[in-house]
């Protein structure tokens, strides 16, 4: 987050730190579940700035919040390119993503759709869907795809523009490593974004 907050790259000019990061990234237990990812660190920057400066908001901090939100939004445009090579069997990352959706299904539906009686408390700049039923159908479709099963919904017939918005919301709200590891998030964000692309055509 330093490049966003104080325009400082901790790795620039420090080869030993670069080597340490490379070693950590090469450790499966860290890389597959513990490490954060560039999007999550960027998206949470605005949230952290709001939390820790709630009583001391200045123009510079407000500008930094806007900068982080704009940077995060820009990064979501590349989610559809998160293409992962097809596998003959369900990969551990795909299974992890599916398990998270299944275990947290109701909360995800609530989070990705807007309710006037319970508006979102964070990332308000991320558009939400408006149809919980469409979001539910979307999640069932996505889980079936992750597990290489035949989906019980037809993505072109039963899903709508609200489902597309919900898909983009989930992809944007997904936080690494809070929700899942980086490889699982890459697969899920890519699938959600390509599904949204198809629904919006």
Estimate percent helicity: 55-70%
Major beta-sheet overview: none
In N-to-C order, the SSE pattern is: HHHHHHHHHH
Spatial gap, N to C terminus: 35 Å
From the alpha carbons, calculate the radius of gyration and give it in angstroms.
18 Å
Taken as a percent bin, the fraction of beta residues is under 5%
| Number of discrete helical segments | 10
Query: Can you tell me the residue ranges where pLDDT is under 50 for at least 5 consecutive residues?
Result: none
Alpha-beta content class: mainly alpha
Shape: globular
Arithmetic mean of pLDDT:
87
Describe the structure.
This protein has helices at residues 2-5, 15-25, 28-34, 38-52, 59-76, 92-103, 105-111, 132-146, 161-173, 182-200. By secondary structure, the chain is an all-alpha fold.
């Amino acid at each position: 987050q330093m490049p966003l907050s104080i325009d400082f790259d901790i790795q620039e000019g420090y080869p030993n730190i670069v080597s340490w990061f490379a070693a950590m990234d090469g450790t499966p237990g860290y890389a597959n579940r513990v490490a954060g990812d560039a999007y999550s660190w960027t998206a949470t920057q605005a949230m952290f700035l709001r939390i820790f400066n709630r009583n001391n908001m200045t123009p510079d901090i407000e500008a930094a919040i806007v900068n982080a939100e704009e940077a995060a939004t820009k990064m979501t445009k590349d989610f559809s390119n998160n293409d992962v090579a097809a596998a003959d069997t369900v990969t551990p990352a795909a299974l992890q993503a599916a398990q998270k959706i299944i275990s947290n299904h109701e909360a995800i539906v609530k989070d990705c759709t807007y309710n006037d009686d319970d508006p979102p408390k964070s990332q308000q700049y991320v558009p939400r869907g408006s149809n919980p039923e469409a979001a539910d159908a979307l999640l069932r479709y996505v889980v079936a795809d992750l597990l290489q099963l035949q989906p019980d919904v037809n993505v072109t017939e039963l899903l709508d523009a609200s489902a597309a918005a919900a898909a983009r919301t989930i992809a944007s709200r997904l936080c690494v490593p809070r929700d899942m590891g980086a490889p699982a998030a890459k697969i899920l964000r890519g699938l959600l974004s390509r599904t949204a692309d198809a629904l919006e055509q």
